[in-house]
Amino acid sequence: MVLSSDARWEMVDALAARTVSPGSYEPSLGDVVGELTVRPLTGIPVALAALYAFWSIFTSFAGTLMTDGFMVKIFDGYWLPWLQSVWPDPASWHYFIFVGNPLADNSLEAFGVLTSGFFVSIGVVLPAVLIFYLTMTILEDSGYLPRLAILMDTFLHKIGLHGYAIVPAILGLGCNVPAVTATRILETKKQRFIMMTLLALFIPCGAQLGIMMAVIPESVGIVFLCLLIGFGLFGFILSRLIPGENPEILIDVPAYHWPVKEYVAQKLWNRTKAFLREAIPFVLFGILLVNLLYLGGVIQALADLLEPVFVVWFGVPKETAGPLIAAFLRKDLAIAQLSNIPMTPYQLIASVVLVTIYFPCVATFVVMLKEGWRELLASIAVLLTVVFIYGGMIHGIGILLGVA
Amino acid sequence: MKHNGRNATIRSTGPVSGSSTFYSLYIAILGLVTIGFGCADIFVWAGASDGFSWGIVAISGDDFFRWAWGGVVMVCGGLLLLSGAAHAATSLHQAAKAAVGVILVWVIAGTDFLAMLCAAIPAEASSPAFFNTLDGFLAGVAPPYTPALVMFPFTLGLIRIFRSAVHR
């Protein structure tokens, strides 16, 4: 028997009336602060501050300290020059595949399996994922995440979801793979489908965020704005088009408490380990495949074939075809590759948005397939339509603003 | 469980009840200063000035995220401090509002401090060394500071009110 949410609420009320006897209760400061964080007037500023802290800690630790402070020096100052000096025959195909461009002076632009591959996965993605999961786990274990779910419930209902959709949305900012799995906490097929599609389209993963900070640090805000608008706009449209229910949220809110460091450490280790197991092989294999396709002339042929779509409709160079193929394996890799193509600032922002909203990476694709092939096919159909429409819309806005 | 705590009062005795007006005034002044700094963050970012520096306080306004978004968080913190100022020492609900306001200021100050540390620990990009020298590190954490960092010590006084609220 499946109960509707109203029937469940009635059952809760009936059970509570029979079993709970109200007594006197003195609220503590923590209780009242907890209540203030779920009321819109006081809760929204707290949510703004929490997201600010989340992003600020992410950029300071992963960007300024680890990648710019140490990793760039290790990879550009030691690793790349050493590989360039010991690898034989810079004109050979194996040099092109494993070391990349012999004239490159930094690991991001060399685009070899052993240069960009290791720099992207260890120098950029690892610190980004580590700090993302640490802050995420602290928010989760302190009791703030359920409150954020309540606060976001009204907005998320407008796009066919409920407050707990914030959990896969935030998880997706780390990696879309666990985020797709987390859509199971949503109650109806309609909600799961909308969330899965929006995740694949508009939520960049931690690896992408890390590489965006390295490639376009001054434009990350604009890219995010484009993605946020797309999330709301297409969520609203999907919620109207897709039949099905969108029941009310039923949520247990724990009191605020200090996270237990052993649990935080265990969760951090499990999540980072799972991510690295998937990320490093895909990044290395991705660069290998793209370099082989370049050598075989496939990328050039695809770029020529898709030129009208890329240049006329999206307003980006036809060479973007290469990174879009790499994006199917790893989106962070694709964004790193975009930095090697000469582009205007508008084209770079539009290309990064396109890479983000275009097809999910292969790992996400596999997890989506596990959720059901019909849902996956429908999701892909929606996805391709949205990429075409939204990509064209961004180009149109760029033309109107005189920047495209 | 529904309990908004709006009518709950702190059964205060001793120094807190005796200094209730002082605490309210202190919180209100902190709130006004926080709003002022938050607005200055936003205005400098929006181009009202190329940058602002006064004594040990500096606003560079070069980054949307820090100065516009962070400025909005500061303004919200100031508004919450102001709205919680009246009877903060005797009303749990008012103390909680002031506490949320102070937490917002602490979030900005904490992240500013972390950003300063993260920039000061590694050596400069042009240097072959990995870690900064002690002198370089100290220069990196020396003034001027952001407004939130300058405000931080002045907000610590409010912990006394919050502790008294927790203990009751």
Structure description:
The complex is a heterodimer of chains A (404) and B (168). By secondary structure, chain A is mostly helical. Chain A contains 20 helices and no strands. The longest helix of chain A has 47 residues. Chain B has 168 residues and is mostly helical. In chain B, a hairpin with a 2-residue loop joins strand 1 and strand 2. In chain B, helix 2 packs antiparallel against helix 6 and helix 4 runs antiparallel to helix 5. The two termini of chain B are 20 Å apart. The N terminus of chain B is likely disordered. At the A-B interface, helix 2 and helix 3 of A face helix 3, helix 4 and helix 7 of B.
Brief overview:
The complex is a heterodimer of chains A (404) and B (168). In chain A, 75% of the residues lie in helices and 0% in strands.
Assign an overall shape of chain A.
globular
Helix fraction of chain B?
A: 55-70%
Number of helices of chain A: 20
* Tally of helical runs of chain B: 7
| Topology order of chain B in helix (H) and strand (E) letters | HHEEHHHHH
Counting structural domains of chain B, the number is 1
Largest sheet of chain A: none
Give the overall silhouette of chain B. elongated
Low-confidence stretches of chain B: 1-7, 11-15
Structural class of chain B: mainly alpha
Helix proportion of residues of chain A, in percent? over 70%
Name the chain pair with the biggest interface and residue counts per chain.
A-B, 35 and 41 residues
Assembly level: heterodimer
